[in-house]
Amino acid sequence: MSQHKVVLLLGSNLGDQKKNVEHALQKINEGGNQISQTSDFLLTDPVEFVSSNIFCNIAAVIFTHLSPIQLLDFIKNIEIEMGRINDSKSSGGYSDRIIDIDIIKYNDLIFKSERLEIPHQKHLFEREFSRILLKDFI
């Protein structure tokens, strides 16, 4: 099996945000993925919804044997295990969340399905905080 280079964005705006992100990174690593690089943490206001809770965000480069859909299922399971109730795709909007993990790039793959779009267009081109976090990774 070959290793795939993947860029992820992680964020949390509930509870101990930094600890939540660190815990998610630990779970990603424990799942057989190699974390090769992380950005500095960045505190930001919510985007596309209103909340008084700020986000703690980080970008990470990992190497994985998982396919894009397997990786999506894996990170969605981490979100659920950590207590995330509403997924923005299923609920139709954004809300406060204990953890959010997005696949930004997967090698140089261009992929689009009902559940997943790679590369993640909003993070690459529309969200300022994402561009800051990803500047050394893309």
Automatic annotation (TrEMBL):
Pfam families, sorted: HPPK (PF01288)
KW Glycoprotein (keyword) present: no
Domain 7,8-dihydro-6-hydroxymethylpterin-pyrophosphokinase: 8-135
Enzyme class, spelled out: transferase
Superkingdom classification of source: Bacteria
GO MF terms held by the record: 2-amino-4-hydroxy-6-hydroxymethyldihydropteridine diphosphokinase activity
Known EC number: 2.7.6.3
Annotated pathway: Cofactor biosynthesis; tetrahydrofolate biosynthesis; 2-amino-4-hydroxy-6-hydroxymethyl-7,8-dihydropteridine diphosphate from 7,8-dihydroneopterin triphosphate: step 4/4
Keywords: ATP-binding, Folate biosynthesis, Kinase, Nucleotide-binding, Transferase
Similarity remark: Belongs to the HPPK family.
Chain's role: Catalyzes the transfer of pyrophosphate from adenosine triphosphate (ATP) to 6-hydroxymethyl-7,8-dihydropterin, an enzymatic step in folate biosynthesis pathway.
Protein name as it appears in the record: 2-amino-4-hydroxy-6-hydroxymethyldihydropteridine pyrophosphokinase
Species this chain originates from: Chryseobacterium endalhagicum
Gene of this entry: folK
